[in-house]
Design a protein that fits this description.
single chain; about 800 residues; alpha+beta; Methylamine Dehydrogenase, Chain H; 5-stranded antiparallel sheet; 4-stranded antiparallel sheet; 15 helices; 36 strands; about 20% helix; ribonucleoprotein complex binding; ribosome biogenesis; Ribosome biogenesis protein BOP1 homolog; WD40_repeat_CS
Length: about 800
């Protein structure tokens, strides 16, 4: 009995308590006696007794007789059913409806399920294994498989439970399932199974735990045995016998007793060997191996003739008189074919080919002089060479849709600039009007007419690259460059018109505070200017006639400052116009138009590039508060400066000539390095916010990416635009890079730069923005800039429109 008890399964506490009592007991009948664990009955009738738990003395004596036990169990089940019928007048199966809302599982359901599972047979609540007290504050206890709420039923109080224990015959065999909120009544068969488990037996009657042994191995010997025994250890340990044998062979080789196979022949034998030189016999393959000359490469085959070379070609292959005349007038090197197709009715009427001897001679010359080499084709899948790039939707946000279009300019819009707060936009072009726009609404807030600063003669300066790509027309009578002061406290926009730089106060349109208005007035008025360096008038000519004095190496710092002030007065003048705008003008006679201007990050320094004939006077740096100007760059000789760019963190300025970018340290007054772009004409520059990567755009459609910490040559050179490149720019916050071109498109890239030097920058194209039309002179997008805080992009085109691209959809 103890051996079977170990096979039994544990039961819930409620079930064991029910089995300790009488599941069929009717307490109103006092003549019936219940046999419980530890007690026995001797005088009462066996038909009225229910054996619930434990084992009788007869079972202990007759433990090995399994048939008697099964008969006893069947008899006990029959007695229980008879007793239940006498007590209620119904069978357990017929009382399903009486036990509602309890759930009664009949024997047929249990047999159909095969006792395979227990917990998941009638699971209606699908909340899983979570604490039920989570649903105490709700009127439901979970959800069914269809997702509907399982409403909590009204339970019985203590009085109802007591009445049910007296009236309900199934009360002792009923269990409450709190998870599914239902009552379950155990069947007769389930009670029998529970009793067998409590006795340490198998739940199913007739189960044989010790079946007869079946010998599935035959006594016959097979070539391939059925069993697969483990590999012996000797197969994994080196053999000592083989080791001794190998040592013996090695000793023989060293002593010369054992000769190696395939030993090379001696030099005498190889020298006296005779082989067939010209013939082709069985030794041909061996001769090919011994030949020291280069491998024979067959001559390329002549191109087979086509329909045009026929003596009677189809009519569509015959040239017209105009085509025949054009072929005869063309140079022989420019002709697509070296003959003129003709039509003959019969083959015997075809004359001799005049160029036959010449063509055969040129063919022989080509075979004799033209080098040939064998090219081995690699069997590589082309798709495997293409890098796997992420989807553009995974790299959002980036601008993709035109959101706002700004109308108002007449002619080309050559430059634009965005307010540091991102609320305002400044633009200028051929109409000589500086316009201030509200970004979100597209409304023009301010407009300044700067046509009074245009030169009297409306000249045009054409600049073309050496390879003919990207023509740049610099017209004096237009706003060539617009730049917004990067400091929020200075609401100033700088515009380059002809030989002047105009500083415009836009605090009235930007809703500035009183502190910002005061700071802007100080910047516009030159609050830190030295005495005598006020606004220049036509009457104040003596400042312009100050001569340059060489102080020498022993001059004091004060003397040098005074000399710098005199040089500044001689080079540049400052004045106020009628509209209270500050104008910077050059007093030198040979000064040219302003090509580029850029603000320093501090907001008080302004650098300009002029098209002067003196190469060392092209770059001028202005201190707006002190109203002083200086030319710190003396190294740019015989090179025309195109663009300027300040480093975002260091006192370094990037100066771009036609082909090179010079990196100049302003504090040390020396050139650090020279970047070689490999292009013909530089058009624009942009530096990454970290300051270690520089991108250069050129008029010959190239984008050169420089890693300033690694090399002075481009890390990558890209060529994806169809026409000249006009502008390149990085976003200050998002990993975005964009380039604008005369083909009317703006290409947007996901550009991520890593701090780790082992990782290359991550550059992936995500969107091509098309919103501007090409003009008749072949111009498209002339300027472009990112929004300072949002993933938006502004573009200005030769069609006279400005557009805002946002991240929509």
């Amino acid at each position: 009995m103890s051996s079977r008890a170990t096979r039994g399964a544990a039961l819930p506490s409620g079930m064991s308590e029910a089995l300790n009592g009488n599941a069929y007991e009717d307490e109103s009948n006092e003549d019936e006696e219940v046999v419980v664990e530890g007690e026995s009955s001797s005088d009462e009738d066996e038909e009225e007794d229910v054996i619930v738990e434990g084992a009788s003395s007869d079972d202990e004596e007759d433990e090995d007789d399994e048939d008697d036990e099964e008969a006893e169990e069947d008899r006990a089940a029959a007695q229980s059913a008879a007793k239940l019928k006498r007590a209620t007048g119904k069978t357990a199966e017929a009382s399903k409806d009486a036990a509602k809302p309890r759930k009664f599982r009949g024997d047929e359901d249990v047999r159909a399920e095969g006792y395979a599972s227990s917990d998941e047979e009638h699971e209606e609540n699908t909340i899983g294994n979570v604490p039920l007290h989570w649903y105490d504050e709700f009127d439901h206890i979970g959800y069914d498989k269809a997702g509907r709420k399982l409403v909590r039923k009204e339970g019985m109080d203590e009085v109802d439970k007591f009445l049910a224990s007296k009236d309900d015959p199934f009360y002792r065999r009923t269990f409450y399932d709190a998870k599914n909120d239902q009552s379950i009544v155990l069947t007769d068969r389930e009670l029998i199974m529970a009793r067998r488990m409590l006795e340490g037996k198998f739940p199913e009657q007739g189960f044989n735990p010790e079946p007869d042994y079946v010998d599935f191995f035959s006594g016959e010997k097979n070539v391939f045995p059925i069993a697969d025994p483990y590999e012996p250890k000797r197969r994994f340990v080196p053999s000592k016998f083989e080791r001794q044998k190998i040592l013996k062979i090695m000793h023989g080789i060293r002593a010369g007793h054992v000769r190696r196979q395939g030993k090379p022949e001696s030099k005498k034998e190889a020298k006296n060997e005779v082989y067939l030189m010209w013939g082709e016999d069985d030794l041909a393959e061996d001769i090919k191996k011994r030949r020291k000359a280069p491998k024979h490469i067959p001559a390329p085959k002549v191109t087979p003739p086509d329909h045009r070379e026929s003596y009677h070609p189809p009519e569509e292959y015959l040239p017209t008189p105009e085509e025949a005349k054009a072929w005869e007038e063309a140079h022989p090197d420019d002709r697509k074919i070296n003959y003129l197709p003709q039509d003959f009715a019969q083959l015997r009427r075809v004359p001799a080919y005049a160029n036959y001897v010449r063509e055969r001679y040129e063919r022989c010359i080509d075979l004799y002089l033209a080098p040939r080499k064998e090219v081995r084709r690699l069997n590589i899948d082309p798709e495997s060479l293409v890098p796997k790039l992420p989807k553009p939707s995974e790299l959002r946000p980036f601008p993709n849709t035109v959101a706002v279009t700004y109308f108002g300019h007449h002619g080309r819009v050559r430059s634009l600039a965005v307010d540091p707060s991102g609320e305002l936009l400044a633009s200028g072009g051929d109409d000589m009007i500086l316009r201030i726009w509200e970004v979100e609404s597209g409304r023009c807030l301010l407009s300044h007419d700067l046509s009074q600063y245009a030169p009297e003669e409306n000249e045009e300066i054409s600049r073309v690259t050496e390879d003919g790509e990207g023509e740049v027309s610099t017209k004096k009578g237009f706003i060539s460059r617009v730049a917004w002061n990067p400091q929020m406290q200075y609401r100033v926009v700088a515009a380059a018109v002809g030989e002047n730089v105009i500083l415009v106060d836009v605090s009235a349109a930007s809703f500035a505070s009183e502190e910002d208005v005061e700071a802007t007035e100080q910047l516009m008025g030159g609050a830190l200017a030295e005495a005598g360096e006020g606004d220049d008038d036509d009457d104040n000519e003596e400042n312009a006639e100050v001569a340059e004095v060489d102080l020498g190496a022993e001059a004091s710092e004060e003397e040098r400052m005074q000399q710098a002030l005199r040089d500044s007065r001689r080079m540049v003048g400052w004045k106020k116009d009628k509209a209270d705008r500050t104008v910077i003008f050059w007093k030198e006679a040979d000064s040219g138009p302003v090509l580029d201007l850029i603000w320093h990050a501090k907001g008080v320094y302004l650098a300009t590039v002029t098209a002067t004939k003196r190469s060392n006077a092209q770059v001028t740096v202005h201190h707006v508060l002190k109203r002083m100007s200086q030319r710190p760059l003396r190294f740019v000789k015989d090179q025309r400066v195109q663009r300027l760019l300040f480093h975002p963190r260091k006192p370094i300025i990037f100066v771009a000539s036609k082909r090179y970018v010079h990196v100049y340290h302003l504090g040390q007054q020396k050139r650090l390095k020279q970047l070689k772009t490999g292009s013909q004409w530089i058009s624009s520059m942009a530096i990454h916010p970290d300051g270690n990567n520089l991108v250069v755009g050129t008029y010959d459609r190239r984008v050169s990416w420089f890693d300033l910490d690694i090399s002075s040559k481009p890390w990558r050179t890209l060529k994806y635009h169809k026409r000249a490149l006009r502008e390149v720019d990085f976003h200050d916050r998002y990993p975005l890079f964009a380039s604008a071109s005369d083909d009317g498109t703006v290409h947007v890239f996901h550009a991520r730069v890593f701090e780790d030097f082992d990782k290359d920058p991550y550059l992936i194209p995500v969107k091509v923005l098309r919103g501007h039309a090409q003009t008749l002179d072949g111009l498209g997008v002339l300027s472009m800039a990112f929004h300072p805080t949002q993933p938006w992009l502004f573009s200005a085109g030769a069609d006279g429109r400005l557009q805002l691209f946002q991240n929509l959809g």
